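In this section we walk through a basic example: taking a raw amino acid sequence and producing a predicted 3D structure, encoded as discrete structure tokens. The instruction is simple. Fold the sequence below.
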Amino acid sequence: MNMQAFLITFREAMEAILIVGVILAYIRKIGETRWNKWVWTGVVLAIAASYGVALLFQVVLSGYESMSNQNYLRIGIMLASTGLLTHMILFMSKQNRTYQQSVESKVATILTAGGALNMIVHSFLVTLREGVETVFFFAAIGGGDIQSALASWGALLGVICAGVLGFVMFKGAKRVPIGKFFKATSVFLMLISAGLLVQAIGMLQDLGVIGSVYRTAGGQIGEVYNIVWLMPEHPNDELHYIRDTGHHPLINGQVGLFFKAFLGYSHNPSVEEVAAYWGYMLLLYIGLSRRKSAKAAATKSAETAALVNGKEQRQGA
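The resulting token sequence is shown next.
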């Protein structure tokens, strides 16, 4: 969970820092630094509101636990988180050099409209969105225990690393391209998202909500393969394997538990889990490829239009 918490807080904090940083840089560029305090006011209020949302989630999850329905809420959160992460990955694939320009344009509109309240609301909503998404993802990876995810070293380290990288991007001599940053983090988010989807399907099968196209002679859900001898997905599975065979697996269950939490690893997946994992990856790859092709076509079209306009201007002269 620590690694997942790190990646989530790093990415969410980084996006908030990028947007707030662009806002502050633009305000400084136009000589309107008097608005800085209102930007920070919105950020602080959003952080406080995010903690309120985390508390609310924790109370709701605890309430569902007493009603023996927490597993269903966890499954719903996992599926919703998969959708949010997928949207995030596709969104990041569109970001390029125009990202900063689009943020500056929105800020210019707000400043034109005037009023400290507008600036507070804008910075509040920008930061709150990232905070709420973080809480939602923590509820998914922590199995409802948001407090443990928030208190983990991964969450704190993610915020610190995002802050350092943000400082380098805005203050350092060397700036990190936004597009490359988003592409790098997208790979890890894809793995986390696919893992959450598979875990949700596995829980639904354990609860008997959905069945399987492949069952054993005894009526149990069948396994596509079983590599518990290589790496059990939990220390308890490791103990059972040692008890039954007298041998130790090549990789212990603690490592398997990490990969299960991080990537949704299973040493004995069902047909549906395998199909969901690779089907999700394939569909996401197709979606990213189409966006890349569309972006390339748009860039080529813009370059062609610029060349035509330049040629017409030279001929007119």
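Looking at the output, two observations stand out. Residues 2-199 form one domain. Residues 107 and 113 are 10 Å apart (CA to CA). In the next section we compare this with other chains.
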